[in-house]
Amino acid sequence: MDLMTARDRRLYGWCIAALVTNMGIVVTGAVVRLTGSGLGCNTWPHCTAGSFTPHEAMGIHSFVEFGNRLLTFVLVAVAIGALVRCYRIKITAQLMALCWINLVSIALQAVIGGVSVRVGLNPFVVALHLLMSVAIILVNVKMIWLVGPHSSEAVDGLTMGLVRATVAMMCVVMWLGTVVTGSGPNAGDSGSARTGFNIETVARLHGISVWITVALTIACLVIATTRHLAMMRRWSIILVSVEIYQAIVGYSQYFAHLNPWLVIWHMVGVSLAAAAVGALWCSVRPMPSPVLNRQS
Q1: Does 197 or 173 have the greater pLDDT score?
Q2: Whole-number Å distance between alpha carbons of 183 and 64
Q3: Residue 146: what are its φ and ψ, rounded to 5°?
């Protein structure tokens, strides 16, 4: 749509808020882990036996973890706000479905977080917790695209396949990133188990996957430029910029022996990369089949 009505702007605002809050909780979750506060509240849904809230005797870690838990209610409130607005205006079935997926996924995300506490921050469950956030961010970007003044360009099968490959490879990058984290020292609690994998080996695999993703993104940029695909070109440039930022921070934290503050900035990059690759994906659509065109 070229112009949004006042009601559409409200929904657009809710969708933007959903994206920002879900990106934000990725970063605050990293703060919890990197400050060793992952088991500051040692059970779930209570913070400690018989109490939903922490108390002074539990120490600062309990308040850090509890603060992150409270942010979930902000995410739920925003998701409900978007859903209520959907029911008040005429929207597509696809957007309605995505708004429901957003709300349900946040609830599921809270359960996964609770399970991770119950199992003593098992690194594989913690990894699922982050990857769920990445999936929600992709949903949020699509919601924004459907309701906002954003367009997409029809592309051929090769170009569409390249974009999809870039998205898929970015997901692999983020998964391997969780394996690196789960194999390193920043467990979220000193007593938490690690994956048992050699961190240098998994870090190298992660690095290789990153450079493959960068190569795919550059290929997207080249095709978008040569074929005059303005939207695809814009988001390819943005994604490459985020990947360069991530590479600088990632290698810096490797040589700095996983300095926690560098890791936090790396997690900022994770949320930015998820949003950027989602926008690249939304900027293109498959070209209609000639057979369907003749039939119509």
Answers
A1: 173
A2: 23
A3: -75, -35
* pTM reported for the whole predicted model: 0.90
Neighbours of 157 (CB within 10 A): 9
Is the CB of residue 181 less than 8 Å from the CB of residue 122?
no
Instruction: Indicate if the pLDDT at residue 293 is higher than 70.
Output: no
**290: its two tokens:** 């000639």
Neighbours of 232 (CB within 10 A): 25
Could you tell me which residues come within 8 angstroms of residue 161 by beta carbon, excluding any fewer than 6 positions away?
Answer: none
Alpha helices in the chain (DSSP H): 6-34, 60-88, 93-118, 123-147, 157-183, 199-226, 230-255, 260-282, 290-295
Its sign, for the CA torsion 178, 180, 182, 184, is negative
What count of other Cβ atoms lies within 10 Å of the Cβ of residue 185? 12
Would you tell me how many other CB atoms lie within 10 Å of the CB of residue 94? Answer: 11
DSSP state for residue 48 in the 8-state scheme: B
Dist CA 164 CA 41 (whole Å): 40
pLDDT-based confidence at residue 190 (cuts at 50, 70, 90): low
How much is the average pLDDT of 17-42?
Answer: 87
Residue 212 has pLDDT above 80, yes or no: yes
How many Cα neighbours within 13 Å face the side chain of 260?
A: 14
- For the CA atoms of the chain, what is the radius of gyration? 21
What are the beta bridge partners of residue 285?
154
